[in-house]
What we know:
Number of strands: 2
Amino acid sequence: MDNRKAREFVDRRWEESILPELVEYVRIPNKSPVFDPDWEVHGHMESAVQLMRRWAEEEVRHLPGARLEVLRLPGRTPVLMVDVPGSVDDCVLMYGHLDKQPEFSGWSDGLEPWTVRRLYLCWSNHPTAYVDVTGTLERKVAALRAHASQIR
Length: 152
């Protein structure tokens, strides 16, 4: 693998595809159902799911065998599932959720909830610490399976 080309590709995708979608995502006032019991009526979760679905469809359309679908259960928040077959007999599970914590008071002048002026993310090309989670992966998967809100 040409590491320089790989890095350039990732950097380009980050700037051209990922950051713009994150900014659009932050603008959606999609609060956790704990803070917005009428989340289905308000439709913000659906807006977030459709935004991410459209983005993911574009990103995986050239990957052989990739499958994308929105999974739904009555009364539960939807799940965007992307399955990309690999070339080894193993899997990687990545999990995230599309809802957010509620806005709070004390905003600076001109800055309101769901408004993006800057986006800060932590990243390092030269990390000083590495954590191997291989030894606890089974416990993490077991915890996900046992989490009641994820298996109803």
